[in-house]
Amino acid sequence: xxxxxxxxxxxxxLGFAYQGDTRDLIKxxxxxxxxxxxxxxxxxxQRKKEYGNVSPDEYVDWFINSFxxxxxxxxxxxxxxxxxxxxSWVKGSPVKSLYNYNLLLEMCRERKIANxxxxxxxxxxxxxxxxxxxxxxxxxxxxxxxxxxxxxxTVWWLSKTETPNASNRNVLVPYSDSMKHLLxxxxxxxxxxxxxxxSDNFNTEHGGAIPPNLLSIAxxxxxxxxxxxxxxxxxxxxxxxxxxxLPEFFIKFLTKPNExxxxxxxxxxxxxxxxxLHNRRWICxxxxxxxxxxxxxxxxxxxxxxxxxxxxxxxxxx
Length: 318
Known about the structure:
Layout: E1 10-11, E2 15-19, H1 22-25, E3 34-39, H2 56-74, E4 75-85, H3 99-107, E5 111-113, E6 116-118, E7 121-129, H4 138-143, E8 152-159, H5 177-185, E9 190-191, E10 197-198, E11 214-216, H6 225-232, H7 245-254, E12 260-263, H8 270-277, E13 281-286, H9 289-295, H10 306-309, H11 312-315
Parallel strand pairs: 2-13, 3-4, 3-12, 7-11, 12-13
Antiparallel strand pairs: 1-2, 4-8, 5-6, 7-8, 9-10
């Protein structure tokens, strides 16, 4: 989707990235034009980050007042909104803030805007586990030793209807060795100790296993093409990038080729890269021109191969 009256910072065969405030740029987007909003907004952290973030006490009001209506407006009726949102700790205390859960509740509360009722449904809650994350918060984990490391983000999959477009056939993962053995040698239908009835359909080969809602994807990028090119051009990389496997999973799960993916907090355009690689149209907004200067490297002629970007599937859900 190309916006009229404004020049894109990045342009590819499938997408556009624009520099500016999402609250302004999104007004240019048509109603019900987006199949998937896939984003990771600035988290409500106590410590201020260079890319900007709102305090936990202000976060829910900021998000609802700034983005709720337009996100609902531009999303197609059968589309999805996926928000990766990490947790936060209460300042000076070893207990967690509930801001991300409060945001979920507010997003799913019915609202009346322009005499029309609006509401998001929680299609499913996901949890992104980053096994490579360093122990944090240090005060409670490595100093006082009264908490374990915080390495899971909540990921809310929201939708305008109870039946958004989705197909888990597009995100099947390799069978475990035990399942391969079962498929090869057969399984006798019986009732499990829990009372769950296992039918003979359990023996059917479906090409892979249905993934769970725990996504284990290590965020260990250290020498990627993006980082090397940023170093070559003396451009500071975005400091809070999620791994390409995260948007890639939801893009494959919730959209079809040539449908439109939108990231309103694009950073270095990881969502745009994943959409481009899987033949989806995309549009990204980012406030920082420097971050978009670096994001251009994701779309240079030297394209990352699908083999490289599919590495997440080899370790996902283990």
